[in-house]
Design a protein that fits this description.
Elements: E1 2-5, E2 12-22, E3 37-43, E4 48-51, E5 56-58, E6 63-70, E7 73-78, H1 150-177
Length: about 180
């Protein structure tokens, strides 16, 4: 997300004040809707980002408006579906050696003959060896999509926010002296 740090640190407001900052909607990932965006504040005690309720995010004007009771670090986040981790299909196990059965040799039947005995030769058939079919493993490659240059987007939005905050504080001081 894009992070904005407002100061001076420790400043609180009762009633809360409205902060509005801008962003460039064209630099968001393709297909992002207003429902996909949210604003969060950094909670030092919890060490985590906590979603700010009631944030108004307008993709047409490129503005974010929130009510805050204190200055802190605020960020704009995009909700995205987690990318599934590609799985690698392992190679099949090595095929086992084919089992070759010994051919069965039948003993020839010799019938007694008064004349010369006739002996038949046994018929031996060659065994048929069937090789198992081995398929190549399939590797699923992750899909890498071109994304938004968040550094540039953050720099632009951060610059606009800093200029807006400086203008506001100078205007407020001038108003206090009038």
């Amino acid at each position: 997300g894009l992070t904005y740090e407002f100061g001076p640190e420790g400043a609180t407001f009762e009633p809360p004040i409205t902060i509005t900052f801008t962003f460039v909607p064209a630099e968001l990932p393709e297909g992002v809707s207003e429902e996909d965006l949210f604003v969060a504040v950094w909670d030092e005690d919890a060490g985590a980002w906590v979603e700010v309720e009631g944030a108004i995010i307008d993709l047409v004007t490129g503005t974010v408006t929130i009510q805050v009771g204190h200055f802190s670090k605020y960020a704009v986040f995009v909700r995205v579906e987690p990318v599934p981790v590609p799985t690698v299909i392992s190679a099949p196990p090595e095929p086992a050696e084919p089992v070759v059965e010994e051919p069965v040799v039948e003993e020839p039947v010799v019938e007694p003959v008064v004349e010369e005995p006739v002996v038949e030769e046994p018929v031996v058939e060659e065994p048929v060896v069937v090789e198992p079919k081995v398929e190549e493993p399939v590797v699923v490659e992750p899909v890498v999509e071109e994304g938004v240059n968040w550094s540039v987007l953050g720099g632009i939005i951060g610059g606009v926010v800093v200029l807006a905050a400086a203008f506001y504080f100078f205007w407020w001081r001038r108003r206090a002296y009038d």
